[in-house]
Amino acid sequence: MAVYKRGYQKYDGPRTSHAERMLVIPRFAWERLLSQKAVTVLMVVALFWPLLCTLFVYLANHSELWSGFGAGFKRILAVNGKFFVVFMNVQSVFALILAAVAGPGLIAPDLVNNALPLYFSRPLNVRDYILSRMLVLAGILGLVTIIPGLLLLSIQTGMAGVDWLWNNGRLFWGVLAGFTLWILILSLVAMTSSAYIKWRVVAGGGVLAFFFFTGGAAEMINAVFRVDWASMFNPSWAIEAVWMELLGVEIPPDRPGFFECALSLSGLCAGLTWMLTRKLRPVEVVK
Amino acid sequence: MSTVVEIENLRVWLGRREILKGITCRLGVAGAGKAIGLLGPNGAGKSTLIQTLLGFHAPSAGRARILGFDCHTQAREVKARIGYMPENDSFIGNMTAVSFIRFMAEISGLPAAAALEKAHEVLFHVGLGEARYRQVGTYSLGMKQMAKLAQAIVHGPELVILDEPTNGLDPAARRKMLDLIKEMKAQHGMNVLLCSHLLNDVEEVCDEVLILKDGQVVHQSDLEAERRSNRRFVQFEVSGDDRGLLEALRAVNAEGVSEAPGQWRIVLPTGVEMSALWRIAASQNLKVKRLTHRRDTLEEIFLKAVGHLAPAQPQPAAPPEVPVHGRL
Lengths: 287, 328
Fold this sequence. Notes:
The complex is a heterodimer. Chain A has one domain. In chain A, about 70% of the residues lie in helices and about 0% in strands. Chain A is built from 15 helices and no strands. The longest helix of chain A is centred in the middle third of the chain and has 28 residues, at about 170-195. By secondary structure, chain B is of the alpha/beta class. Chain B folds into two domains: about 5-225, Rossmann fold (3-Layer(aba) Sandwich); about 230-305, 2-Layer Sandwich (Alpha-Beta Plaits). Chain B contains eleven helices and 14 strands. Chain B has helices at about 45-55, 75-80, 95-105, 110-125, 140-155, 170-190, 200-205, 225-230, 245-250, 275-285, 300-305; strands at about 5-15, 15-30, 35-40, 60-65, 70, 80-85, 160-165, 190-195, 210-215, 215-220, 230-240, 255-260, 265-270, 285-295. In chain B, a hairpin with a 2-residue loop joins strand 4 (about 60-65) and strand 5. The radius of gyration of chain B is 24 Å and the shape is elongated. The relative contact order of chain B is 0.13. At the A-B interface, helix 1, helix 2, helix 7 and helix 8 of A face helix 2, strand 6, helix 3 and helix 4 of B.
């Protein structure tokens, strides 16, 4: 029978699980994000660098192609921790731009249209909402960071043999954990920007500005007080230091070490989470 | 059968202000399809009570239960059983009505296919069938109200909480909304908690009423029982010395309040006929200028509960007039 003839009937069928309900939010959000041209174009552009790196891996594993270039060239064409630090550094910039484009549309529309009471009157709480929204960005950013990183590792393993992966297992976990941490930071910054700045363009600019200003402020403190420790407050540097540690690359001695940087990033994540939970309330309470 | 809403000494503080000051009540019967009206002047705590029932505020003392589940500690179970229609505009931008309702149904726990089917079904039900592929943001106020109702009932909740559902509706849309609420009760067995400033709406739709004032319950009554009872309100206007009228009314178990010199509002109990008033007027040497009677209305109940009908005060004696044995 046609729907318009049938009339409303109260639903009393089976219900989905809590986890499935949480995944509904990312599913709808991905559908909307991937329909935006800017997001699609950025995702395609973000794959150029992994393609270049794949070429590098190919060359590194085919020494007959550059046998005439000497031993110095051989040192450059090595697939090791340093290679992956460079790969992750460049790819993280694409991820940052993508987060600035895709992130602002996540929370601001819900706040502008007063949709939070609709979410929170259903079996979802603030934590579920934040996790669901984070999953949206994690999915998009994972496609341009973790997936290409793991593909590169797979290609290198395929060319150099399983023994190479066995000897360089740290790189696998380093890429995975390093990019996961970067995605977490980018997601939190983008969501906080979206929650506090309702104008999408400005919110996107806010994401980029956050990294520029924190970096600039950290370097300014270093220069004014002639110290090195302020670099740990520069998220771009701090994440690079963490990646170096994870990938077994030596951190420059004149810069803060792994623990300071990890602590600084943990504090940043905690602060952003606190700001988000303060903003995301079903009703505004005037005290 | 369990109670729909059970509140015990509920206290809620927002900032440094105590908004709900120890509310205790039991409302509705689960599965009975009854509507509960929540009334009160501005700032009485109605919205805070609704938001506490939805788990938006944590009680500082006491507890609130919906369908047997604690609103604070078992919020997920409670929310799985309720639908909520907020007072203000609430929707998700850049979504068609079908997508919006489907999305709401899915996060309420309906499988994707069922959610899509129910979204179409409920949009036709509320009268938005032809506009279901339009973006909700482009809807008129009345259409947005209907879309909000649709998202509140799409998942078939046991209790629907409606906050000012007829706000901003024209008479035809208001009639449609009230008919839909009545249908939700009668045909689908849903319980409804209706918060409204419009007493006529509450009187038309609700079976029970809870009146709040200053964060406390000042009246709770079963409107059905009120309607069934034969109590009648009488507006009684007399001239003469009416100082003994209150005493005489009490002698026949009637209650009365003097609204102005010579103007009385009297409640006649069951079994007391109108003729008793004529006899009292005659015995008090009063000249009856006007006598009208009607059944108790929610407006009377509300005004009494919030203290807008002052208790009877002794009135100064009216100038003497010639009694005509209580008759005009």
